[in-house]
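Forwarding these from the shared drive since the link keeps breaking.
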Amino acid sequence: MTGKAKPKKHTAKELAAKLDAATTNRGGGKAGLADRTGKEKGGHAKLECPLCKVTAPDIKSMQIHHDARHPKIPFDDTKLNNLHSTAPAAAAETSKPKPGVRGSLKK
């Protein structure tokens, strides 16, 4: 026996909400990692703070972040890292071989 005002079956609205929650990407977990970090083109994070490496989608959000987190340093939008640019990073251009597992160079 059920209590008063308790539906015995799920409503259409509840079923639709469950289906939407199960099938829509909300940006969490591994599925939304590329979108959050902006490493691939098309991610929401376009700009990266040069001081703390926090990402933001636009210049206004980055300025709000900078004013809140780095108030003593003046904001300079030319120093921001654009994650969507196609220019190669300076760190990736090094041709020095990296050491192996125990510090020896693999040949």
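-- next protein --
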Amino acid sequence: MPSSPTETARRSRPAITLAVVLAAFVTVPMSISGAAVALPGVGTALHASGAPLQWVMNAYNLTFAAFLLVAGSAADLLGRRRVFALGAALFAAGSVAAALAPGIGTLDAARALAGIGGAGVFASGGAILATAFDGAARTRAFAAMGSAAGLGLAAGPTLSGWLVGGLGWRATFALHAALLIAALSGVGFVPESRAPRRPRMDVLGAVLFVAALGALVLGAVQGPQWGWTGPAVLGLLAGGVVLLALFAAHQARTADPLLDLTLVRDRRFLALCLVPVVTTFGFVTLLTYLPTYLVGAGGMSAGRAGTVMLLLTGPVLAAPPVAGWLVTRGVSARLLLGLSLLLFAGGDAWLTVIEPGSSAWVIAPPLLAVGLGAGLSFGINDGLALSLVEPGRAGMAAGFLNTMRVGSEAIVIAVFGAVLVSLVGTRVPSHALAARVASGDLTGGDRTHLAGAFTHALHVSLWALAAVSLLGTVIVHTALARPRRTTAPTPAPAPDPAAVETR
């Protein structure tokens, strides 16, 4: 039987454990945001465009999302350190293969392999911290993990831009490989842990879940190209829903489920898993599409747009440690999470002040508000969610939490892009022109009119994002409320600062 978290932490080297996990958690999101900057260079060098080029991103996102839950359960079964090391090795191998790819097909396959590795890293990395640290130390560790993920997202485009400009697009993927190889060098100092009972792997459940999520993500990312009402997209989406229903039915019957459904029946755990979904609407969509608006309709250079985006990403680096510190000092986690989601709603609505030619001073307050909201939730949410789960299911819980995060990103970003094109299309004469405008290309017509169409579409979308974020705030805040006692209270143990305080 594995040691308790406290005993494990005493025997391990916590500083090295934390450094290894943080290095990986910087790199995996960096590979998402940084690879997008390399796409133009990839297209030119490999003579690729359209869907094959876009699958440099889609292949990574699809396998990353689909394998997270499987990786989390495998970590509980086989060992968190072992799955982390295997995931890091696969990610590094995929990144090396991407850097050396002779053609676009090889590059897409390499990115799919890296996505599987990234799933192993993310699912087991959070579980390693949850079992290697406890109390205030765990809160600080997860705050650092949130900062690392934010740093990767924020620094990815800038580093990739420098590398592409100086050394070419292959250097971007080589950097990702180098960082994960460096993390692997310290894996031997990370404590191993696994579930007390080692059941058989739920192979049928894994196949059903990977197929279900793969169908849903594929349908979402191909919807804008194949048409949302086309038989292929409708078939994928309907098939994904049916497979998910079959997966849930199988999990309820099997003795050793891939996902213990009692996890999702815990309303507080499920609420904390909804936080990254709301974050995708309120923050990640801006991170993805706002630079396109700033360059296309705003007329900024790519460098200037990147500098302005620091107003959005900067708070993500600074706020997580502050959030963790506040929780350890007794500030209500429920209050902080509610505030973070409200900042998404308010910031997205406030950003409707943006117009072509708006100065950074005009959009700075809403961007800082949204970035602060993301930083607060990044700092405490994962640690709080895993504090509600016994150590034996930490990998499963981390896998489900990150499936909600990455799956929502892949689907919401694809749908948001399609909505943006549709809204632009209400003010321009053709769908093809609308697609070009939404991608930042304002040639082929009156630039002022096209910029106005893009602005109208962005404003409507921002109001929708604000509404979804506000609804998410209400749902999460309500679900995190402590249930009323119906019997006389019993003496409680000493409070854990990492536990969800809902006062």
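The chain has a mean pLDDT of 82. The two ends are 36 Å apart (CA to CA).

- D.
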